Amino acid sequence: MHQTLRQNAQLIIAALMLLIGLAAPFIGLYPIFMMKALCFALLASAFNLLFGYGGLLSFGHASFFGTAAYVTGYTMKYWGISPEIGILLGTLAAAALGVVFGWLSIRRQGIYFAMVTLALAQMLYFFYLQADGFTGGEDGIQAIPRGHLFGLINLDQPLAMYYTVLAICGGGFALIYRVVHSPFGQVLKAIRENEPRAISLGYRVERIKLLVFVLSAALAGLAGATKTLVFQLATLNDVNWSVSGDVILMTLVGGVGTLFGPIVGAFVLVIITTYLAGFGSWVTMIEGTIFIICVMSFRRGLCGWLADRFQTASPVLSESEPLVATDAAKAGFRRTLSTPSIPLKDASLHE
Amino acid sequence: MTEFFGVSVQALSGQLMIGAINGAFYAMLSLGLAIIFGLLNIINFAHGAQYMMGAFCAWLLLNFLGMNYWIALVLTPLIVGASGMLIERYLLRHIQQLDHVYGLLLTFGAALLIEGAFRQLFGAAGLPYATPALLQGGHHLGFMYLPTYRAWVFIFSLVVCGATWLMIEKTKLGSYLRAATENPTLVQAFGVRVPRMMMLTYGFGVALAALGGVLAAPIYQVSPMMGTSTIIVVFAVVVIGGMGSIGGAIFSGFALGLAEGLTKVFYPQASSTVIFVIMALVLLVKPAGLFGRTA
User: Does B91 reach chain A within 8 Å, measured CB to CB?
Assistant: First the structure.
């Protein structure tokens, strides 16, 4: 009963968002801004699938985003293939990379996992920096043609391009929604909450983690490939670790482990970076400050906070699993290395 | 001219020396990270920024207060360490009971804030810091030229790492520290002020990073970006060494610096990625790291 009501509420919000998305070009929203925000929203949602639902903090999602951007850009520019094949190839490349990185990184848990993903992503960055035959080095791949979708729709027309991006990102969100609400999604949450218990229940945790890692990588790649099509550009900026940091910030601001949080967070961050771009390093400082504020006192993010507001009115509307310990736990002594000395209600991300 | 696998001994020893110097910095930084992680269970993402703060602090002391290198070598770790203690006292302490990833995210935010501030104040270009007069020049060793300052950095960091290791493994203070790492509640019950110890430990780890920054200032240019590039390599070093052990951090720091130097001689293209490749290989064979305990 709870489950269905919550899902209904989510579907209503999703429908509203879709309506805004469809109407955006006609209500004065700048298409390039919308497309940029949509791509980052998909990237953040892909990251959130891994971190929010799987409990795996990846610091290397820029590598999937950037790899797909390069593959799509390269194949479309030099092989002259059509956009749908280009995006498919980019996504596949990101998924393949996800298999390798995921296989290596899920050997460690928690913060080690974060460090391993970051280090692997940095390795790839240096590789792309030197492989200038493929990536164009410091210059990147520029002037990538948008081409005709399925040989029919001319993507150089702004409206066609916008709706294509909306369709791709909408499809991505729908897939994430399906995954989260499937039995697979439930197992994922079980692993996040208590991995040893999930193992003892007979789940092949390693395999499930790898699967969600690859899925998240592929979706991040889809976002990167789409971004290349929008900006007709693939550069080292796409693989830089600062993209991974931005994505984490988007998810934190919007709400970790909430369905719409990453989307909201991506729009907030893209607004900040677009309109404050002239302030130079102040943007970095603002981002850092938001990071600290979110971690210190706003861990549920905008969507989590809204859900809490709703919860007081009608308890069924909230997302049920917060990723953070409760106030009761805060009052207790600090958590020790091996054993939590106090019972933490959903103490999250156990190693 | 003697040759070694087709490479002149001069080039080889020169790169090995650079590798040893880099290794000295890796060792000091990963040692600080290991100490902080041991007691606070936090991966200090701001470590690179604090290393950069150390270099800038020395530069500021010289250019605005006229304090020379030797004074900076003493004052900088104290100043930057104190700023670290403030971060622990007012930020990190309040998220101790949460999952460790929040500590990582908080210090990541702090790193962005610190680096953004320094870039805003000093620009992205590097600033020069002169080698102290006493350590200028160098020695011809017959097969290579050894600048005095680099020799000093290598020996000084070896001494610092060794002293830290001795302090943690052999003194009473160190045994409190190790005990609190195992079970803070119990140690607290014996009358040790664990929260204060955590604050001092974080300060000490940060001071180590800042000391590294002062040592680095005459070698690399003082720039707001110097921490970012270093810290990610140090993370890989830490994963290779295994977080559990202080000795592992020191050993793997020096060893990987040397490995990087060797790569520069034999296959320069791979020199910036070799540490990450080694990390991937180590993960395949020993996921807990070379010296790590399995979690």
Answer: yes
Q: What is the pTM of this model?
A: 0.85
DSSP letters for A93-158: HHHHHHHHHHHHHTTS-HHHHHHHHHHHHHHHHHHHHH-HHHH-TTT-B------EETTTEETTSH
The rounded distance, in Å, linking the Cα atoms of B4 and A195 is 52
Q: Please, what is the end-to-end C-alpha distance for chain A in angstroms? A: 32
Cβ atoms A226, A168 nearer than 8 A:
yes
Type of residue at A283: V
Can you give the pLDDT at residue B295?
46
Amino acid B199 reads: M
Q: With a cut of 80, say whether residue A318 has pLDDT above it.
A: no
Q: Can you tell me the distance from the alpha carbon of B232 to that of B229, in angstroms, rounded to the nearest whole number?
A: 6
Question: Within chain B, how many helices (H) and strands (E) appear?
Answer: 11, 4
Say if residue A175 is exposed, middle or buried (CB neighbours under 10 Å; 0-12, 13-18, 19+).
middle
Q: Is the dihedral of CA A299, B198, B206, B245 positive or negative?
A: negative
Closest chain A CA to residue B270:
A127
Element (DSSP H or E) covering residue B232: helix B226-241
A70, A109, A117, B186 from A124: Cα distances, Å: 12, 21, 11, 45
State the pLDDT confidence band at B294, using cuts at 50, 70 and 90.
low
* Mean pLDDT confidence for B244-248: 82
Phi, psi for B146 (deg, rounded to 5): -115, 110
CA distance B177 to B199: 12
Using DSSP's 3-state secondary structure scheme, residue B131 falls into: coil
Judged by average pLDDT, the poorest of A9-13, A236-240, A266-270 is A9-13
Q: What confidence tier does A351 reach under pLDDT thresholds 50, 70, 90?
A: very low
d(CA A293, CA B178): 32
- Quickly count helices (H) and strands (E) in chain A: 16, 2
| Interatomic CA distance for residues A276 and A269, integer angstroms | 10
Query: Can you name the residues that pair with B7 across neighbouring β-strands?
Result: B4
pLDDT in tens, A115-135: 889 989 999 998 999 888 888
Residue A222, by phi and psi: left (phi above 0), alpha (psi -120 to 50) or beta?
A: alpha
Let me know: does A220 contact A266? Beta carbons within 8 Å. Answer: no
Chain A residues 118-147 with a CB less than 8 Å from chain B: 118-120, 122-123, 126-127, 129-130
Nearest to A348 among B99, B183, B235 (CB): B99
* CB proximity B137 to A under 8 Å: no
